[in-house]
Sequence to fold (378 residues):
Amino acid sequence: MKYATEFRDPTAARALLAAIAARADQIGATRAKPLNIMEICGGHTHSIFRYGLDKLIHEGVEFIHGPGCPVCVLPMARVDECVDIAEQPGVILCTFGDAMRVPGHRKSLMQAKAAGSDIRIVYSPLDALELARRNPLRQVVFFGLGFETTTPATALSIQQADRENLANFSVFCNHITVPEPIRALLQDPDMRLDGFIGPGHVSMVIGIHPYDFIANDFHKPIVVAGFEPTDLLQSVLMLLTQIAEGRAAVENQYARVVPEHGNPVSLAAIADVYERRPSFEWRGLGEIDHSGLRIRPRYAAFDAEEKFGIGYAAHSRNVPEIPGCACGSVMMGKLKPPQCPQFGTGCTPDMPLGALMVSSEGACAAYWHYAGVRAAPV
Ligand code: SF4
Fold:
């Protein structure tokens, strides 16, 4: 196939839905005893709802929404620290637009900007680099967050700043990795997952082998998938085929984009610039070992934690979430967004309580915009 529209072809989608139904019946999946398929990536969650796949698919297949929205899993304390940096005199804080309305305890970045802090939305860390070049008397800080998809671009900006000796540029690093939270979910006795739809964009960078443990250690199938409706349906069919045949393997439905071994240039930049934190806090999942990245001492001059005296271990833990908000349970796939008591009442896109309602990859935003669910269930 050559054009995006071909991946939205109704005839192909109907054929895939019929094949999925046949496999689900063969396995014995029913509404009462469904196969729980977790899509890890928030982009997949939005595609599922945008195209109504949750309603079209066999009733024995249940989509469980995973923790793959990097803005959503950012603990509130890190938002607070980012606001603290933005409020320092002379600082220009640069961020992706998604993070602007994520609530902190005191305020969001949007509210900090309204109160006078110089906060700018950028489309790339290279935009922040350019701001640093043009404002040599200001400190320009890039709010680096995201999974392996965005991690390389931040690394390249740090390498470039190093080459130019751009001393007024730094990164507040909140980059995180995908495989570790999947392991944490698989080790949770409350979770019953039958397979995973693997993230397409992350895998474009890291390849498919970092997921080998899912099949080898936990005997669950995972299929790395693209973002069009037939991509997702084909991935579900591949998962159900593995389950029906009693197999658990890592398969790549998105081979037109995802190389088996990832992108060597990106992986080299990541290895050069970052090292693993001993652990990092994820909203809803708590501390997860080796799941966060920090900037190596070699690049300490460009590390905002060093420059502004923010010690992760000292400041970022155990800040309570907003009472009554179920972000953590939604993030872990234990609750669906409408089951949160705040959904559609205390929490809407205009007045969000949690990041899942504002991020373009958040599960609550997906339900709000596409699933026709606009109020809390009674
Ligand atoms: S509705 Fe709001 S408070 Fe509830 S889980 Fe979603 S983002 Fe969190």
